[in-house]
Every structure is written in C-alpha cells, then in structure tokens.
Amino acid sequence: AQKVTQAQTEISVVEKEDVTLDCVYETRDTTYYLFWYKQPPSGELVFLIRRNSFDEQNEISGRYSWNFQKSTSSFNFTITASQVVDSAVYFCALSEPGGSYIPTFGRGTSLIVHP
Amino acid sequence: NAGVTQTPKFRVLKTGQSMTLLCAQDMNHEYMYWYRQDPGMGLRLIHYSVGEGTTAKGKVPDGYNVSRLKKQNFLLGLESAAPSQTSVYFCASDSGGLPYEQYFGPGTRLTVT
C-alpha cells in the first residue's frame, strides 16, 4: 500500500528564514512519481513539481528546491529566504503505476510566514 | 487562457438529490481527474480519465459516476447525494508526458444537508 507522511502539521517562520518541509513515502513499486503542490489561503491548488523515481537529482527553481533521497524514501521541499506569499498549505503526493498513475496525498503542512 | 474551469462554484443539495459538476480544459490534455478535499486532509481521487471515452475508478469512487464524452470535458455526477459527500471538489488535468504540466480548477464547494 502507498503512504505519504507529512509529519509537520504546521510550521511558523519569520520572513527571510529558510524552511524545509518533510515528506516521507512508502511504496513497493519501483516506478512512481512524487509531487509537491501549494494551496494558498485562497484555496486554489498549484502544481509545483513532479519527480520520476529514477531521477534522484535535486531540483532548484528560484527560491524552491527539492531533495529526493530513495535511501530514506524522502522527498523534502526547501524554501530559501521565505516570504509572506509563501504562506500556504503544501501537499506532497506519490503516484503509483496504473492508468495515469493514481496519486496518494499526504495530509499537508501549513506554512505560516510572518513579516 | 482559461486553463481548467469548473461549474458550479457552490451548491447546496438536499439528501437524495442529484447533480452534475462540469470540468472543462482548453489545453488538449489527455488526462483528467476528479478529487475531493475534506478538512485537514489531502486530496482523494474519485475518478479519472486517460482520454476521450475512457473513465476509471480512483480511491473513493462510491456514490459518484463520471463521463468523458468530449476530450475537453469531464463530468462528475452524484445520483443520490448524501451528507458524507459534503466536500470541496477539484478537477485537474495534466499532459501525461513531457513537458509535464498539471492544472487544477478553482474548486466546487458542495454542501449536502
């Protein structure tokens, strides 16, 4: 069975701090995808990244970076120099093979960035 | 650039009533999904489609039906609404392959009394 754990329910930081959101997953599949999404207070959902299980290279996009480590089954998300606009709930997800890859979502981490 | 649109945005139903939620995308995506989001939880996949004329069950399909008669539209139906179906429903579409892109609709807040 697939499982995604986001152990941090809520994180509170002050603007300009770096913050890492943890994501630990469980799967028996060797082929899968990992995702991160952002849900700001307005409620919309924004896709951030998809990572193939065969690609363990870290990814950087502006202030965002992702660290994928198969050895620890983790796919952590770091925001550098956080800003108030980063305040949101962030979801990690794991998708299993089958059709279009059926996703399992974590419960989310609420990030609050104080000015 | 509309992306993914959903109608309606809000709806209140009485137990036993039926309704259809419409999702439309203008990006020529093959894959479309219907999710529900309940408080304190991530999204749960209800049904999905890998192309026009195809549908498949997700993780919580009971009480819902779907149809994808046209590539750009994915309909979610509730035949006999129950209070347990009170939720926020999101539609999504993605490109499947590379370059990968995925977009969500704005959501439909459904209350069943």
Keywords:
heterodimer; A: mainly beta; 4-stranded antiparallel beta sheet; B: 113 residues; mainly beta; 7-stranded mixed beta sheet; globular
One letter per element, helices H and strands E, the order of chain B comes to: EEEEEEEEEEE
Strand content of chain A: over 45%
**What's the overall geometry of chain A?**
globular
Query: Which percent bin holds the helix content of chain A?
Result: under 10%
Question: How do you describe this structure in short?
Answer:
The complex is a heterodimer of chains A (115) and B (113). With 115 residues, chain A is mainly beta.
Characterise the protein shown here.
The complex is a heterodimer of chains A (115) and B (113). By secondary structure, chain A is an all-beta fold. Chain A is built from no helices and twelve strands. Chain A has strands at 3-5, 10-14, 19-21, 24-26, 33-39, 46-52, 59-61, 64-69, 74-79, 88-96, 102-105, 109-114. In chain A, strands 2, 5, 6, 10, 11 and 12 form a six-stranded mixed sheet that branches. In chain A, 31% of the residues are buried. Chain B is mostly beta strands and 113 residues long. Chain B is built from no helices and eleven strands. Chain B has strands at 4-7, 10-13, 19-25, 31-37, 43-49, 56-57, 64-67, 73-78, 87-94, 102-104, 108-112. In chain B, strand 9 (87-94) and strand 10 (102-104) form a beta hairpin. Chain B is globular and about 40 Å long. Chain B starts with a strand and ends with a strand. Chain A binds chain B through residues 4, 43-47, 50, 91, 93, 99-100, 102-108, and chain B through 31, 33, 40-45, 48, 50, 56, 58-59, 88, 90, 92, 94, 96, 100-104, 106-107.
